[in-house]
Design goal:
This protein has 136 residues and is an alpha+beta fold. It contains 2 helices and 8 strands; from the N terminus they run E-E-H-E-H-E-E-E-E-E. The protein has a single domain, classed as 3-Layer(bab) Sandwich (Archease, Possible Chaperone, Chain: A, domain 1). The chain starts with a strand and ends with a strand.
Length: 136
């Protein structure tokens, strides 16, 4: 589950999940939902492997979302399904999605960057919480 919150000229996102793996997967899905108005239209036509190095959950989340945004900007690749595995020193993810097809994918907004502002990842009594702000 994710929700957005207003933040001046930027957009804040908040994700809650049962565990850290699900949190990172849902954060990726939340980013997709910010990019396209109809994320449910995404097919699993392309598989991509992503490895993110790091120890700190907040920096891992930042780098994870940055990589997904980079793949969209550089390859026009929309990714929305994720299998995440934790490794010593980071995460390994298998990602599925497809190339942007303007006939089927309705672009919602341009995300210029993932920011460090309000970047938060923490375990809470009822699960995990992440927050971050994107520059739009």
């Amino acid at each position: 589950m994710f929700e957005t919150f207003e933040h001046t000229a930027d957009l804040g996102l908040r994700v809650r999940a049962a565990d850290r793996t699900q949190l990172f997967a849902e954060a990726g899905q939340a980013l997709l939902a910010v990019l396209v108005a109809n994320p449910e239209s995404l097919a699993r036509r392309v598989q991509k492997s992503v490895r993110i190095a790091g120890q700190d959950d907040e920096y891992l989340l930042f780098d994870w979302l940055n990589e997904l945004l980079y793949l969209f900007e550089s390859e026009r690749l929309l990714l929305g399904r994720f299998a995440i595995e934790w490794e010593p020193g980071g995460l390994q993810a298998t990602c599925w999605g497809e190339l942007l097809d303007r006939r089927r994918h309705e672009l919602l907004r341009e995300v210029k960057a993932i920011t460090y502002h309000r970047l938060l990842v923490r375990e809470e009594p009822d699960g995990w919480l992440a927050e971050w702000v994107v520059d739009i």
